[in-house]
Amino acid sequence: MNPLPPTTTVIHRFSRRQFIQYGSICMGSGLLAACTNSNQPANSNSQLDKVSFGTNWYAQAEHGGFYQAIATGIYQKHGLDVTIKMGGPQVPSGTQLLVGGAVDFFMGYGIDAINAIAQGIPKITVAAIFQKDPQCLIAHPNPAIQSLADLKGKPIYISAAANVTYWPVLKVKYGFTDDQKRPYNFNPAPFLADKTSAQQGYITSEPYAIEKQGGFKPTVFLLADYGYSTYATTIETTKELVEKNPDLVQRFVDASIKGWYSYLENPQPGNQLIKKDNPEMTDDQLAYGIQKLKEYGIITSGTAEKQGIGAMSEERWKALYDSLVTAEVYKPNINYKDAFTLQFVNKGIEYYSR
Questions:
Q1: Could you tell me which residue ranges the SsuA/THI5-like domain spans (predicted)?
Q2: Collapsed DSSP state (helix, strand, coil) of residue 233
């Protein structure tokens, strides 16, 4: 295993004490200092800018480019000393962590960025690593289930977050109803026990787990191919940081994008760090995740084909917002353009090969 560069640290799963700290993030300046300064490398190079990045789940292939940028020294070449703070089911939201000052950047998604504007929260999306959200619905093999529309009336296990993301869109477009919903607790057992049911998941993860545990290959519907147009695995930060230190933001975005190009070409360095941070992750799962990221064009399709990984467009953001207004998630008076900036992306593939 390649060792970490001496100026970079990866934070392992949050302890109960850290969870309490982060959950109370807005309670006092002393606590904020503890969140911000904890777990910094003892031998940091003072010439590098310290940056913390929060992920949305345990380390996995879906985070590979960020780990790759650490493992191969890309962040260091851009003058950055990056600490990755790994997420999980009990870690507070990225909005909490950003606004509270516990992280400088966070791995977000498009709908939440618009939601922040609706609530007057001063965060902004500066890049979109995933052109397609890996969110999918998974069903048992059944000749009668050939498309997403065929799940109408069937029990579907979804998370609470789905109620303000993809579920309202599916209700409008496919006639799904709330009585179909079942609570999803990130355990496939209820789905496996009920052959009439479906469940949510990531195209890169849950189908693999279901195939291993259930002994069958499930039917998978990627929501991005059915009109759910949100960006995912975005890079979010505060508007204050964009205004006060755009050079730092640009370097972090550029280095992260270059990390993703490197990871897709040779993921071994990043995978070694992922497994160090998340010992339960296996080589097979990582290989499966990378295969699906490529197969479905999660990272390099759309605008990113010419403008480079991380690309965004005003048209995509407008289409997302319009779909959420139609689904009555938001009112048509939100200035959704405040949720993102194109200042740091869309520089062309050649730019990222430098």
A1: 61-268
A2: strand
